[in-house]
């Protein structure tokens, strides 16, 4: 085989590899854009922001700061309190285990303490102290619902997190799926929206095997 023929074949393979690389990058961008749209356009379920009266409100966990809810987590808790005081539900499930190696209490304990300090009876707050992901948040919360003979729930989280939470809730078996969301005034929202695209991708992959 002459050097000219060999170079020609190599050139063809390089072009094919380049085309495949361009196609792969384009497909990845389309995928990320589609998920990003789902993330940023979610306004709650139902969309009018008025969930039906339910047995319990489930507040999805987030970080504690010095054993107290972080400013972002307080936003979720304050929305849950608003719904509670408006008569949407009369019980809470707060979710989340230890969020750092040096944590002394779980996310759920910190959230419970905050709600009690705001006037919620401790008897009205159930805790999931084991979960480490949104999927586990909702799976373990449903176990608590079953043990209390509760059938309906409103899931409370941030807007950027709502679409994935709703999809997970449907997979876990919540019916109806109700998700109330709050926009954040304290978080770096673009960062969390971008991060959520990656988390959503991971969830959809995991969902295939459930």
UniProtKB/TrEMBL annotation:
For this protein, the record's CDD domains field holds:
YdcF-like
Q: Which UniProt keywords apply?
A: Membrane, Transmembrane, Transmembrane helix
Q: What residues form the membrane-spanning segments?
A: 20-40
Q: Where is the DUF218 domain?
A: 55-189
What InterPro entries does the database record attribute to this sequence? Cell_Envelope_Assoc (IPR051599), DUF218 (IPR003848), Rossmann-like_a/b/a_fold (IPR014729)
Q: Which Pfam families match?
A: DUF218
Q: Is Transmembrane one of the keywords? A: yes
**Domain of life, per the record?**
Bacteria
Protein name, entry field:
YdcF family protein
What is the taxonomic lineage of the source species?
A: Bacteria, Bacillati, Bacillota, Bacilli, Bacillales
């Amino acid at each position: 085989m002459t050097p000219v023929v060999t170079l020609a074949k190599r050139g063809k393979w390089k072009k094919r590899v380049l085309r495949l690389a361009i196609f792969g990058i384009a497909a990845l961008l389309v995928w990320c854009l589609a998920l990003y749209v789902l993330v940023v356009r979610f306004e709650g379920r139902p969309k009018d922001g008025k969930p039906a009266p339910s047995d319990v409100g489930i507040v999805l966990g987030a970080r504690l700061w010095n054993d107290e809810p972080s400013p972002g987590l307080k936003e979720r808790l304050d929305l849950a309190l608003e719904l509670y005081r408006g008569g949407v539900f009369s019980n809470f499930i707060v979710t989340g285990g230890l969020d750092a190696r040096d944590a002394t209490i779980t996310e759920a304990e910190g959230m419970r303490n905050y709600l009690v300090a705001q006037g919620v009876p401790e008897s009205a707050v159930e805790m999931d102290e084991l979960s480490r992901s949104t999927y586990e948040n909702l799976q373990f919360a449903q176990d608590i619902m079953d043990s209390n003979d509760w059938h309906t729930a409103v899931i409370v989280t941030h807007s950027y997190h709502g679409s994935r939470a709703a999809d997970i809730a449907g997979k876990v078996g919540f019916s109806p799926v109700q998700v109330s969301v709050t926009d954040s005034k304290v978080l770096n929202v673009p960062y969390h929206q971008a991060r959520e695209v990656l988390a959503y991708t991971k969830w959809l992959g995991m969902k295939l095997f459930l």
